[in-house]
């Protein structure tokens, strides 16, 4: 069965096809009747071993708009708490005649492992610090709405790159589309290996904002930090936090993005997050259309 495990193995043509299909679904979502019958005979399980607000609700809504039957599983409150394994859990869900699995898991590679042992389609909804492909696709969609073709565009990814699956998936997606990518953050939060992916690195947020056409700002992921990293949240906000004033004073308008959840007052001040520079809620809106496109295209290849 075809899967969407990451952006790494997706080619530029597939990204274009997903964006084109998502555009059509976005038009559907703006009509009074938002539902289409495309996945009427498909059953999808949203299997979440890690917390989520946007991704989970967005997938569920995308599935419902496509007329699929959906069931939702959270590890908390399930028999995972009694020691049931990942594979047993998913095989039991599939025994109920489920066709597709949308899975979020804290372990990098968990959906790849699953794909070797089960027959259903798998969509990775975030695997630890590894990839979050549908986030990168909705970020691409949102960027293209604002900037057009991304070839030659300057895109900054600012924040906790080390712990971010959103950063890695976005780097792959942006490079495949010919964008220039610059990572910005404290050196402790930018892993050395990532420079081999052909990205620039900066530790100067003001310079990076002046350089870019769009800034994708990421959360400091304290929950993934095993040891106490520099900087503290207060230090991060002081040296890397982005305020509305900084955006207003730039020589040209830039697009401000954030995948959510925002740590208000840390990576973004509230007045920056809620400013006209921000397309943060447009990203969330576009997420439903992009996930409809991914589900539709995968189901049609099954
Ligand atoms: N952007 C994102 O993945 O948000 P959630 O963790 O709330 O799904």
Short description:
With 302 residues, this protein is α/β, with parallel strands linked by helices. The protein has two domains: 137 residues, Aspartate/ornithine carbamoyltransferase (Rossmann fold); 151 residues, Rossmann fold, CATH 3.40.50.1370.
CATH architecture of the largest domain: 3-Layer(aba) Sandwich
What is the global morphology? globular
How large is the share of residues in beta strands?
A: 5-15%
Unique bound compounds: phosphoric acid mono(formamide)ester
Give, in order, the helices and strands: HEHEHEHEHEHEEHEHHEHH
Oligomer: single chain
Largest sheet: 5 strands, parallel
CATH fold node name of the largest domain: Rossmann fold
Number of domains: 2
Q: N-to-C terminal Cα separation, in Å?
A: 6 Å
The residue fraction in helices comes out at: 25-40%
Q: Please tally the helical runs, counting DSSP H or I stretches of 4 or more residues.
A: 11
Average pLDDT, all residues? 96
Give the strand line-up of the largest sheet.
7-6-5-8-9
Number of strands: 9
Q: Helix/strand/pairing class, anyone?
A: alpha/beta
Under CATH, the homologous superfamily of the largest domain reads: Aspartate/ornithine carbamoyltransferase
Low-confidence stretches: none
* Cα gyration radius (Å): 19 Å
What is the CATH C-level name of the largest domain? Alpha Beta
Function: Catalyzes the condensation of carbamoyl phosphate and aspartate to form carbamoyl aspartate and inorganic phosphate, the committed step in the de novo pyrimidine nucleotide biosynthesis pathway.
EC number: 2.1.3.2
Protein name: Aspartate carbamoyltransferase
InterPro entries: Asp/Orn_carbamoyltranf_P-bd (IPR006132), Asp/Orn_carbamoylTrfase (IPR006130), Asp/Orn_carbamoylTrfase_sf (IPR036901), Asp_carbamoyltransf (IPR002082), Asp_carbamoyltransf_Asp/Orn-bd (IPR006131)
């Amino acid at each position: 069965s075809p899967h969407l495990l990451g952006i790494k193995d997706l080619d530029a043509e597939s990204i274009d096809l997903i964006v084109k299909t998502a555009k059509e679904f976005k038009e559907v979502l703006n009509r009074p009747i938002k539902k289409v019958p495309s996945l009427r005979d498909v059953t999808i399980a949203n299997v979440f071993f890690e917390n989520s607000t946007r991704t989970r609700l967005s997938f569920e809504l995308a599935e419902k708009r496509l007329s699929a039957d959906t069931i939702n599983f959270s590890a908390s409150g399930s028999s995972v708490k009694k020691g049931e394994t990942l594979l047993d859990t998913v095989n039991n869900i599939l025994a109920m005649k489920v066709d597709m699995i949308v899975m979020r898991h804290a372990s990098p590679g968990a959906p790849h492992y699953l794909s070797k042992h089960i027959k259903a389609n798998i969509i990775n909804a975030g695997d630890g610090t590894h990839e979050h492909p549908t986030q990168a696709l909705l970020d691409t969609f949102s960027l293209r709405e604002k900037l057009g073709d991304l070839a030659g565009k300057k895109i900054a990814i600012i924040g906790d790159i080390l712990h971010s699956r959103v950063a890695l998936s976005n780097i792959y997606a942006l490079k495949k589309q010919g964008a220039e990518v610059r990572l910005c953050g404290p050196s402790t939060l930018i892993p050395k290996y990532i420079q081999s992916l052909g990205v620039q690195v900066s530790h100067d947020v003001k310079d990076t904002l002046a350089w870019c056409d769009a800034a994708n700002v990421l959360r400091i992921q304290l929950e993934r930090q095993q040891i106490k990293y520099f900087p503290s949240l207060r230090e991060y906000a002081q040296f890397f936090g982005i305020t509305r004033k900084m955006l207003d004073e730039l020589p040209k308008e830039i697009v401000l993005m954030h995948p959510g959840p925002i740590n208000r007052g840390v990576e973004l001040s509230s007045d920056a997050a809620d400013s006209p520079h921000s397309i943060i809620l447009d990203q969330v809106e576009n997420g439903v259309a992009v996930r409809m496109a991914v589900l539709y295209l995968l189901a049609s290849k099954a």
